[in-house]
C-alpha cells in the first residue's frame, strides 16, 4: 500500500509541475503587453515609453522568462501566487475569499449527483428492460448530452420564472444554492446512473452472487451485502473525479447564476487580462483535482486489494 501510494503521489507532483508550466505560459504567450494593459486602464490614456519600462520592472516582465517562471513557482510552492495587476490584492487572498463558496457549491452538486445517480442506476439494474430502465437510460442520455449553460437556463425558466419557486441570482441563503447545485449535478448524475447500472448488472452475473442466491439469501441482502461493494468500485472512481471537476470547472455555472466563487472570479480575470489571477486559479484548480484523484486512487486500492497487489508487481 505504501509503495502504491508513493507512486501515485510522485505522479501527482509531476503532473502538477506540468500544469504549472502551462499556467505560467498563459501569461507569457497571451497577446498584449501586461504593462501596457495595466497602465492604459489606470491612466485612461496610452502610456509613455518611460512609464512602460518602469511598469515592466515593477511587474518583473523585463526579466528572462525562465527566471520569471522559477520565481513564480517558488512563490506558488509557498502558497504565494503574486498580486493581481488590476485589483491590487494578493492572488492568494482573492482565491481564499472565494474558495469556501465554490467548495459549498461543488459539494452540494456532488452530493446531489450521488443522491440522484446511484439510486437510479441501482433501480434500473434491478428492473432491467422495464419501463423504469428505459426511462432512466433516456434521462441519463439527455442529462449527459446537454451542456451546463443550457441546463442552467432550462432550470431558470422552469423553477424560477414559471413556478417562481427559487431565486435565480445571488448568494446568502440555501435557496440561492439549489439552482446552481442542481445544474452542476445533472451531468455527473447521468454518468453515475449509467455507470452504476452497468456495474451492478455485471456484478449480479458473477458466480458468488448465484451461490448466495442458491443458499437462500434474499434479493435485497444479495444486492446490498454482496453486490454493491464491488459494483461501486468504478462508481467511486468516477464520483471522486467528478468532485474534482466540479471544484475546478464550475466557471460557467457560477457566471450564469452570479455565484461569487472562484469560477466567477476567473471569468472576470480572463476578461480583464489579469493573468496572475488566472494563473493562480488554474494551478489551484489543478492541485485540487489531482488531490481528489489521489484520494480516489487510494480509496480504490482500499476497496479492491488486487490494486495493491498489482501496484507492487509493476
Q: Give the helix proportion (percent range).
A: over 70%
Strand content: under 5%
Task: Compute the separation of the termini in Å.
Answer: 13 Å
Total strand segments = 0
State the CATH superfamily name. Answer: MetI-like
Give the quaternary arrangement of the chains: single chain
Sheet/helix structural class = mainly alpha
Shape: elongated
Main sheet properties = none
- In N-to-C order, the SSE pattern is HHHHHHHHHHHHHH
Averaging pLDDT over every residue, what do you get?
A: 83
Q: What Rg is obtained from the alpha carbons, in whole angstroms?
A: 24 Å
CATH architecture: Orthogonal Bundle
CATH class, named Mainly Alpha
Describe the structure.
80% of the residues lie in helices and 0% in strands. With 314 residues, the chain is mainly alpha-helical. The protein has one domain: MetI-like (MetI-like fold, Orthogonal Bundle), CATH 1.10.3720. α1 packs antiparallel against α13, α8 crosses α10 and α10 runs antiparallel to α13. The model has no long low-confidence stretch (mean pLDDT 83).
Give me a quick take on this structure.
The chain has 314 residues and is mainly α.
Topology readout:
Layout: H1 2-29, H2 34-43, H3 49-59, H4 65-77, H5 91-126, H6 131-145, H7 148-162, H8 174-204, H9 207-214, H10 219-248, H11 251-256, H12 262-272, H13 275-303, H14 305-313
Could you name the key traits of this structure?
314 residues, single chain, MetI-like fold, 80% helix, 0% strand
